[in-house]
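Fold this sequence, please.
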Amino acid sequence: MRKEERLRVLETLKNNLDAGTTADAGQVLCAPVEEFVGLERLALEQEVLFKQTPLLLGLSSDLPDVHSYLATNEVGVPILMTRDESGAFRAFLNVCQHRGAQVVPEGRGVARRFSCPFHAWTYHNTGDLIAVTRQGQFGDVDCDELGLRELPACEVAGLLWVKPTPGDPLDPETLLGPLHDEMEHWGFRAHDFREEQVLISDINWKLAVDTFGENYHFNVLHQNTLANDIIGNLQTHDVFDQHYRMVFASKGGFNHVISEGIPTQDWPYRMITLNVYYMFPNVILLVDPAGVDLLRMYPDDDRPGRSKTHHRYYPNPEIAAEITESRFQGFNEIIVNEDYAVAVSIQRNIGSGAQRYHLFGRNEPALHHYHNVIRGALNLPPLLTFEAVNS
C-alpha cells in the first residue's frame, strides 16, 4: 500500500474514532437464509464460482525455488502447481492421462519429474509426458498429446491464481484490477510459508467468509480476546471491483500514537492496523504485524451446511525469526472457539425455519459487498433493502 493511501486510511480511522462513527453502507440489506441451505444454490456456486472462476490458491513463496511444487485437492479437483526450470508458474490437473490416477500426493516439495503410482507413467514439471512404462508392449500412443492437462494460471503481485477448468489464459491485468499496485507494495514474495491447517465446520462456506466481514461483534463475542487488541465497530470500507478491503485499528497502537501526539504521517501503519482483504470469490487475506494469513473457504462436497477453511500462515519477514509459537493456537481460540462456534448455531437455526432473512447493517458494509458480488456472478439480483422486504 502506497504511503498516501496508508495516510488516508489512518486519517479515516482516526476521524471516525474521534466522532464515534464507522464506515456506513447507508442502508440495511436482507439476505434470504436459503442462500445458506439450498442445494440448487450450492450446485450453482460450485459450477460458477469454484470451476469457472480464477481462484487465489497461494502466495509466490509457496513455490520458492525452481522445481518447487504444491499439490492440493482443496477446490474439489486435484491440482498440481509447479515452478519450472525457467521460474514460470504453471498449474495442471493432477491426473494421469493413462487411467486417471492422481500423480502427485497432496503436499509440497521439489521435483523435476513425477511418476504416477499406478503404472509409473512419468511427467516433467512442465506437464509433458516423458515416459510410458514398457511403451512397446503398451501400444503406439503420442506422448505429445498425453501430457498433464494444463490449467489457466497466473502469478501476479506475489499471488498465485488458478482456474480449475482448462480454457483460455488468465489476464493478469483483470485478476486484481485496481488492487494490483497495493498488492505489489505488500511484498508478499518475501513472506515465506510457515504452516497450514484445514478447519472443517458445520457451517455454509459463506458463513465462514462472513466471519471476517465486520468488527461490530468484537466487543461482545470477543470481549475477552480480540476486543483487548482491536477497537470494535470501527473499520474502513473500500471496494476494488469484485475485491474489497477494510482496515481495523489496533487499540494499543492507536492509543499510543494519539496520546504521544505523533503526527499521523509518522504512524507505523502495519504495526497498528489489521488489513482484511476479501478476494473474490472465497478468500480472506489478512495482513497484520505478525504476517499474512491466507484463508480459502470452500463447500465440503455437496453439503450446504458444511465447509472447509484452508488456512496458511506466512510470517512478517521483519520479525519472522522472533516468532517461535504456532500462529494457529491463538487464531483457533478465537476463530474456531468463538466465531465458528456461533456460526454453527446460526447454521442450525437456519435449518429450523426460525428466520427468513439475515440482516446486514449499515455498519457492516463488507457483508453487503461479499453477498452482492457473489449474487452478481451467479446472475442473481442484488439483496433487497430492509424497507423493500417489509413494505
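The first strand starts at residue 29 and ends at 32. The chain has a mean pLDDT of 97.
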